[in-house]
Amino acid sequence: MDGLRAINVYVIEDDDGLTLIDGGWAIPVARDLLDRSLTQLGAGFGDIRRFLVTHVHRDHFTMATVLGHELGVDVGLGVGEKPALDLLNNLDRVTESPFLGVLRSAGAHEVADLWAQGEPDVPPREHWAYPTHWFESDHAISVGERIVDAVHTPGHTPGHFVFADRAAGLLFAGDHVLPTITPSIGFTMPPVDNPLGQFMASLTKVRSLPDLRVLPAHGPVAESTHARCDELLAHHDTRLAASLAALDDGPRTALEVAGSLGWTRHEKAFADLDPYNQGMAAMETKAHLDLLVARGDATATDDEGGVVYAPVVEQR
């Protein structure tokens, strides 16, 4: 999906059974693979006692909530994800995707029209069943003899949590700290204010923990949370500087700024992206520009074509 080949689901075993970090996407091929993988460990679905879910995205949450309710076991999720689940459980009241408004405010009207023309993705209601309990703040969780710290890390989504096993030197990082890519920012339903500011603050928060091995939801294990957090923070500092520099030639929308930047590790031109990724790029650029506004480095003015950004000029 969306260029991602797989999600990593982690299993912690204790005398009472299995605790799973995330569950995967509730599609038949993933369910079968999870079943076979547990069999290789000498276990099965009946041994699952709990799911600790990092965030609400379908490749992390839906298998957990479907299996959790089938098995009658605990499913924990950050309370910041409740607005998304409220929306997904009331799709009959939604007249259009909330992403379309964000795209239009970014100046990406043609991209919004293309997104609106796509086949609606209406998931089964059971894929979005509410968790059995909410994570409301940082707290410790006993998993057998282990103590795992649930750490709130909003940014990628409002209710994202990571799980730190300090004694074992491990961070179950979800999508917050990924070893080879950066998680999407600004692709949140419903939209939230200043997601990039939240994400960078959460990176700083994780950076303040002991240096741990990164067990990410996508990609290989990385050896150092400190090193990877530093890289991600530096990446976004670079993008912020490039976004601000793009305003030097005059006020621009997020779409216009996105068009001047390179995308992916291969520095692709914006025009070479498909409409889906053009939309993602426009929303992420808007998140960078909104953080510049929050920092006092730029201004934002509503216009019929979208929000227009301009640099703050110092008065002498």
UniProtKB/TrEMBL annotation:
User: InterPro entries in the record, alphabetically?
Assistant: Metallo-B-lactamas (IPR001279), RibonucZ/Hydroxyglut_hydro (IPR036866), Sec-metab_biosynth-thioest (IPR050662), WH-like_DNA-bd_sf (IPR036388)
Metallo-beta-lactamase domain ranges (all copies) = 6-218
Gene3D superfamilies assigned: Ribonuclease Z/Hydroxyacylglutathione hydrolase-like, Winged helix-like DNA-binding domain superfamily/Winged helix DNA-binding domain
What Pfam families does the record point to? Lactamase_B (PF00753)
Q: Which residues form the signal peptide?
A: none
Question: PANTHER family this protein is in?
Answer: ENDORIBONUCLEASE LACTB2, METALLO-BETA-LACTAMASE SUPERFAMILY POTEIN
What name does UniProt use for this protein?
MBL fold metallo-hydrolase
Native organism is: Nocardioides acrostichi
